[in-house]
TrEMBL record, chain A:
InterPro entries: EF-hand-dom_pair (IPR011992), Rab-GAP-TBC_dom (IPR000195), Rab-GAP_TBC_sf (IPR035969), Rab_GAP_TBC_domain (IPR050302). Residues 299-487 form the Rab-GAP TBC domain. SMART domains: TBC. This is Rab-GTPase-TBC domain-containing protein. Residues 1028-1038, 1102-1111 have a biased composition (Basic and acidic residues). PANTHER family: RAB GTPASE-ACTIVATING PROTEIN 1-LIKE (PTHR47219), TBC1 DOMAIN FAMILY MEMBER 2B (PTHR47219:SF20).
TrEMBL record, chain B:
PROSITE patterns: RAB, RAS, RHO. Pfam families: Ras. Coiled coil: none annotated. The keyword Nucleotide-binding applies. This is Ras family-domain-containing protein. Keywords: Nucleotide-binding. Residues 133-163 are annotated as: Disordered. InterPro entries: P-loop_NTPase, Small_GTP-bd, Small_GTPase. It comes from the Eukaryota. GO terms for molecular function: GTP binding; GTPase activity. SMART domains: RAB, RAN, RAS, RHO.
């Protein structure tokens, strides 16, 4: 009891805050409009106007029909003599491109309506489906519209509809004409005229659709049914002599419909429907009056069940749009195979196997075709078990095409995400169901949780197969009748009612088993009397199922579509996160043996990075696409006429949990991926302007009325623009084992594993060599050598992280900013530059000639063509000296054996004769792996680069790049148990230390060498200036830096935290300049972040860098 | 829940939550059906979400009541699995010995269970459809309820060797059996072995008269491979309830 009170209390506290849930999850008005009238996605609300619809008085008005339908006492009774006789409904009249819809349910969908966001619609039938009275009229079904001449201030239309053929008359047999609709528009003259203009336009378009309507109508049993009077035998032929055959009404017409027709009172239901359809139109022209809803609640008769399902669900309108889609799809893919088809085949024999139709080839064949056609039509869903059961049930009442379209409506609208590859919709609705149980039946909920019974384990199959394999078929079909009309809420209402009715027994069940058996027994007795002991025979006649329906729709009337939407958006994030962490876990575990070389953290990091890049790219592509669509559309129509609703679900596409998402990276995505992992992969010369950060932030929180999302025109989104370099192309090729120009996560992991995993200098040298050994013959030619060198410079242009600097001893790194240390660091970069130049020289020195005879060729002339700059970089060390021109070709004294230290500091005399000779294009040379290895090992800097620097330049989980490059959305980062408790050790500073971009990227080695000669001096000056600047930065302290980084870091909090940490550390370190620290080799992490970032707000440093090396 | 209906003297009974995992159409539901009802259906409806059944297993000095969660095998249902293996004390990971890919999937499940399920979960690796590979006459039908694949008739049906699977099972310390749900071969044994493999300490029974004795533990341990109650599963009381 106390629990109940608590539950009640919580219920009040727990009022969902509509503002708390993100707007992105809310359906747009256009969506609501489509859902309300079950229109195809191509429709949008163009005009709406308040109107009164008058239907001709029923010839045999049943007394039970109340004067409901929101009767408005219309006092201008002199308006029309006829109107008194009719039934009046006041409501909203809507016009879309191809439909004229009317509903007494008071909703408004156009963008100009008073409320800007759909949150405001909390009406209980909001978006539910065609509830209320009214009609959804395809414009092709309008035969004539007349303006009624009434008193001047009235604007009334008389609409004659038809179903594509002339009505029968006394003289001529045929289905009766649908009722004439009289519509009185209520609005200003201008509004009315605008509406009518729109209607005229639509009607002209609608003429083209008439033939389709006839085609579709032929499959409607109502057309056949109404041709004759109910009590007459169906006429065997048409007047022109062709024989009439009833349309396909499903397998039931061959194999009998489930249940006893007499018990189901099928014939009297048919009689009632005959009357209703005769007076209110049929299929396209049907008008919904209260009896329509009532007739559905009592259960549809067998022969009309399919058609009414089709109409109520809106599948009819889809079929009307593309009447031949089903046949075409089957024809198009005939003979093709797919995974879905294999899965379908496995299940064909076990879909409602007890029904006679599925023990025959006829039934199996229909089932196969519908499931297959749908799997082709919607490959993202393909085939999900449970669809076989649902479709098998549908096919008992529906023809194949009808079932096909209904399946479409089910998957796309009524059961969103239920059958997707991750089944997120199913899981989400289970969560919603649980929370509804908690709210409505707190005692039961408390009992379940205290006994550790997981409700969804029981209820999941109810929802997934629409109760079809939980209840006896005849009852499940009655649930479906209402479900197609009123939408998903019915599933919840029934589920809640089941629990409510069995509440007492369930409270005694203490485990899953007992719980399930209570419900199983209940389902088995649905047909029994609910009150077997009652004296009153009327009460005795009430079955358990009827009682269930009453409980569901009376007691749980408050479970509305909007309540469900509310709950869905509340739980969505958590559900998606769960699925994603599961997917991540599974996928990381199955990455193959290579992945064992990397830590779980790193794998998790790679997974996140990989899918973030793919996700973001897809988002951007979609946004750009949408924007261009929007512009196109806007160009066509007046902006005020358009509701931009498409963005409602847009931000979700591509999320892992939502179903199939891209799982392969093309080269561009790969570049973007690398840019978030390695500093060198970020370009130095962004081609697109840096994004306006503040604008981005401020727009994020707005309602998505017109512009849903800030549009980022940069193809790289908020991340840095990646570089494009030969090295990256080679890496991509090497990792692309299948040669499909696309990398899977597994490719990326096995590509990275040898680099990051081995930590063995020999294999890392070999790895690098193989990248350049194009024909895998163990030789790299001159071009290759140059490219290798370019790559080395490319990789090092933001500084090299050698083994020491990336070691976990943070304190040593923090001191990088100190004067002498800074110098050391800069020296380091220069050292690398000179190492590379020495490397080139030696490469050619030790290269094996392809044709030894030509070796003697003198290199002087060629040296002039291609200035041999090899020694110049070394000169850079001498900051005061002007660069020397390397003309001293005569100095022919190559070092006999390069000693490791020889190149760092000394400026060896140009001994380039051999090299020059090697540069001569007419004497091809190559180096082999052993030579390459020797050359690398001969140089301390390169050795250290291959020992650790190269591997460390890929920043994975243990040392992520702190900048905005790693913009993994929250859903990827905090998913999963893989994230180590406490997270990865966050380095106190940005690794890779970096201002040092002394070398411009991408200009090609030769050009660069030229530049180095002329710009050496400037480089030296620049280097010095940077150092001074960095020093000043530190002296200035954190505040100014902070603001600068704000600009630079693109508002990425995470990154900023890291940098602030670095700052603090660097600041602290500057206080205690202990000599021992000074001795630490720099490569300087702290120095890096401090010196790199001061690149003054924006891209000035880039500008400097580029101009620096421009000719 | 009903007490044991067998004639045996009151023995401590305890319930064990067991979950079946494995690729679609390897015969999970058929194994359960054989164990619970000693029955076989060629065309069994695919499991939606999961089915729940119970069956008792008689050991010399106690009764184990299995609460069996039979899960759906289709790949996309995988994300629902954690819901079902939550708190499971035992798992049957099933593959189809005529389908190598199903062993790969089984290995994935084993890894998933080892990392995510309750610690100490007893896992049995079961290669099903043995009847397709034995020379006991031409078998036209597949023994398995989850699908019919007619191509296999004239091929050498076995694609996964006993040795390979066994080696893997030993490496991962799993119980290992090859079964046929169609003929019933080894089916009871699987469940008995699992019952014996459950550590006494982790047993908690609704009707559990005490947690069992030390001797029971040793008896259970000694008899892992001994077929204590041959056919017990088949002959046992029927109280399965599929939902």
């Amino acid at each position: 009891m106390f629990q109940a009170l608590i539950g009640k209390a919580q219920q009040f506290i727990d009022i969902p805050n509509p503002l708390a849930s993100s707007n992105a999850d809310r359906p747009s008005k256009a969506q609501l409009f489509r859902h309300q009238f079950r229109l195809p996605d191509s429709q949008s609300p163009l005009f709406e106007i308040t109107a009164e619809v008058t239907l001709p008085k029923s010839k045999k008005q049943s007394p039970s029909t109340p004067k409901s339908g929101q009767p408005k006492s219309w006092d201008k009774s002199n308006w029309d003599q006829d109107r008194e006789k009719g039934t009046h409904y006041l409501g909203q009249l809507h016009l879309s491109e191809q439909f004229l819809c009317f509903s007494t349910v008071n909703t408004s969908f156009v963008s100009t309506a008073s409320t800007s966001a759909s949150t405001a619609f909390n009406g209980r039938t909001n978006g539910t489906g065609p509830s209320g009275n009214g009609f959804t009229l395809p414009l092709c079904a309008v035969r004539r519209v007349e303006r009624l001449h009434t008193q001047s201030y009235m604007f009334a239309l008389s609409i004659t509809t038809w179903n594509g053929s002339d009505a029968g008359t006394d003289a001529k047999p045929g289905a009766p004409a649908p009722p004439k609709l009289t519509i009185q528009l209520e609005g200003s003259r201008q509004q009315c005229e605008r509406f009518c203009d729109g209607l005229k336009r639509g009607l002209r378009q609608g003429i083209k659709e008439v033939e389709k309507m006839r085609t579709v109508g032929r499959d409607c049993y109502s057309e056949y049914f109404l041709y004759d009077e109910f009590d007459m035998k169906p006429s065997p032929t048409l007047p022109n002599g062709t024989s009439r055959t009833p349309p396909d009404t499903g397998l039931g017409s061959i194999f009998k419909y489930p249940g006893n027709p007499r018990k189901l009172r099928d014939r009297s239901k048919m009689r009632l429907w005959h009357e209703y359809l005769k007076e209110n139109g049929r299929n396209a022209t049907l008008v919904r009056q209260p009896d329509f809803h009532r007739l559905i609640r009592v259960g549809l008769p067998n022969l009309l069940r399919g058609e009414i399902w089709e109409l109520a669900s809106g599948a009819y309108f889809l079929r009307l749009q593309k009447p031949n889609l089903y046949k075409e799809t089957l024809a198009k893919y005939e003979g093709q195979e797919s995974l879905a088809i294999d899965e379908i085949e496995k299940d064909l024999n076990r879909s409602l196997p007890e029904y006679a139709g599925y023990q025959s080839e006829e039934g199996i064949g229909r089932l196969r075709r519908v499931l297959t056609a749908y799997s082709w039509e919607n490959p993202e869903v393909g085939y999900c078990q449970a669809m076989n059961i649902v479709v098998a049930a549908l096919l008992i009442y529906l023809s194949e095409p009808q079932a096909f379209y209904i399946l479409s409506v089910l998957c796309d609208r009524l059961l969103p995400g239920y059958y997707s590859t991750t089944m997120y919709g199913t899981l989400l609705d289970q969560k919603v169901f649980e929370s509804l149980v908690e709210k409505t039946m707190p005692i039961l909920w408390e009992h379940l949780s205290s006994n550790d019974v997981q409700l969804s384990v029981v209820s999941l199959p109810w929802f997934l197969s629409l109760y079809i394999n939980s209840m006896p078929l005849i009852f499940a079909f009655r649930v479906l009748d209402v479900f197609f009309l009123e939408g998903p809420r019915v599933l919840f209402q029934i589920g809640l009612a089941i629990l409510r009715i069995n509440g007492e027994e369930l409270l005694e069940a203490a485990d899953d088993g007992a719980f399930i058996s209570v419900l199983k027994t209940y389902f088995a007795h649905l047909g029994d009397s609910a009150h077997p002991k009652s004296e009153n025979p009327k009460h005795r006649a009430i079955t358990n199922f009827q009682a269930l329906m009453v409980t569901a729709f009376k007691e749980f009337e408050g479970i509305t579509q909007s309540a469900i939407l509310e709950q869905r958006s509340k739980h969505k994030a958590a559900i998606l996160e769960n699925i994603e962490s599961f997917a991540k876990r599974t996928s990381i575990r199955n990455l193959g043996p290579e992945s064992k070389k990397l830590s779980t953290n790193d794998l998790g990091f790679l997974y996140d990075r990989f899918f973030t890049v793919l996700y973001e790219r897809e988002q951007r592509a979609k946004l750009l696409q949408e924007e261009s669509d929007r512009k196109k559309k806007a160009a066509k129509q007046k902006a005020s006429d358009i509701v931009h609703g498409a963005s409602g679900n847009a931000p979700e596409i591509g999320r892992v949990a939502l179903g199939p998402s891209p799982s392969q990276m093309d080269y561009d995505a790969f570049r973007e991926f690398l840019a978030g992992v390695a500093r060198w992969a970020v370009t130095d010369s962004p081609s697109s302007p840096t994004k306006d950060d503040s604008a981005h932030k401020s727009q994020n929180g707005y309602f998505h009325t017109l512009k849903a999302k800030p549009l980022n025109t940069s193809p790289w989104g908020s991340g840095p623009e990646p570089a494009d370099h030969d090295f990256m192309q080679r890496l991509f090729k090497k990792w692309d084992l299948e040669g499909g120009s696309a990398l899977t996560l597994q490719n990326v992991v096995s590509g990275l594993a040898p680099i990051k995993g081995n930590r063995d200098i020999m294999s890392s040298i070999a790895y690098f060599f193989e990248l350049y050994d194009d024909d895998a013959d163990g030789k790299v030619d001159r071009e290759g050598i140059l490219r290798m060198s370019e790559a080395l410079l490319f990789l090092s242009r933001r500084g090299v992280n050698d083994g020491l600097s990336s070691s976990p001893s943070m304190t040593s790194m923090n001191d990088g900013e100190l004067g002498p240390e800074g110098k050391r660091r800069e020296n380091k970069d220069e050292q690398f530059l000179s190492a590379v130049s020495a490397f080139i020289r030696r490469c050619f020195e030790y290269a094996d000639p392809d044709h030894p005879s030509r070796q003697a060729e003198d290199g002087v002339t060629s040296a002039m063509d291609k200035p041999t700059v090899q020694d110049t970089p070394a000169n850079l060390l001498d900051l005061e000296d002007a660069p020397q021109t390397p003309t001293d070709a005569a100095a022919n004294s190559p070092l006999s054996r390069p000693s490791p230290n020889a190149f760092g500091q000394s400026t060896p005399k140009p001994q380039a004769v051999a090299a020059n000779a090697a540069l001569d294009p007419s004497s091809p040379v190559h180096i082999t792996l052993p030579t390459f290895r020797m050359l690398v090992l001969a140089d301390e800097t390169l050795e250290s680069f291959f020992d650790s620097g190269f591997a460390n330049s890929f920043h994975l989980a243990d040392a992520p790049l702190p900048s905005s490059t790693v913009t993994s959305p929250s859903f990827l980062t905090h998913s999963g148990k893989l994230a180590t408790p406490g997270g990865p050790a966050i380095p106190a500073l940005s690794p890779g230390g970096a201002s040092a971009g002394v070398v411009p990227p991408g200009k090609g080695l030769r050009g660069m060498l030229d530049n180095i000669v002329t710009d050496g001096m400037r480089v030296a000056v620049e280097v010095r200036r940077r150092m001074d600047e960095a020093q000043k930065e530190i002296d200035r302290g954190g505040t100014t830096r902070g603001t600068e980084e704000d600009d630079d870091e693109d508002g990425d909090d995470h990154g900023r935290d890291l940098l602030e940490g670095a700052e603090a550390d660097a600041g602290a370190a500057s206080l205690k300049t202990e000599p021992s620290l000074l001795d630490e080799p720099v490569g300087g992490e702290a120095g890096g972040s401090a010196a790199a970032v001061p690149s003054t707000p924006g891209g000035t440093s880039d500008v400097e860098k580029t101009t620096m090396f421009e000719r | 829940m009903a007490d044991s209906t067998t004639a045996s003297a009151p023995k401590p009974s305890s319930s064990v939550k067991l979950v079946l995992l494995g690729e679609a159409a390897v015969g999970k539901s058929s194994l359960v059906l054989r164990f619970v009802n000693n029955d076989f259906q060629p065309n069994k409806e695919p499991t939606i979400g999961a089915a729940f059944l119970t069956q008792k297993c008689q050991l010399p000095n106690r009764i184990i009541k299995f609460e069996i969660w039979d899960t759906a095998g289709q790949e996309r249902f995988a994300s629902l699995a954690p819901m079902y293996y939550r708190n499971a004390q035992a798992a049957l990971v099933v593959y189809d010995i005529t389908k190598p890919s199903s062993l790969v999937k089984a290995k994935h499940w084993v890894a998933e269970l080892q990392r995510q399920a309750s610690p100490g979960i007893v896992i049995a690796l079961v290669g099903n459809k043995l009847d397709l590979c034995e020379d006991d006459g031409p078998e036209q039908d597949q023994q398995d309820g989850e699908g019919v694949d007619e191509q296999q008739e004239d091929e050498v049906a076995r694609k996964v060797s006993t040795e390979e699977a066994k080696a893997y099972a030993e490496e991962e310390s799993l119980l290992f059996f090859e079964t046929s749900a169609k003929t019933g071969h080894n089916v009871g044994e699987v469940f008995t072995a699992i019952a014996n493999g459950i550590p006494e300490a982790s047993l908690k029974g609704p009707k559990g008269a005490g947690a069992g004795t030390q001797s029971a533990i040793s008896a259970a341990q000694d008899s892992t491979r001994v077929n204590l109650n041959a056919g017990n599963g088949n002959a046992g009381p029927k109280e399965g309830c599929a939902c």
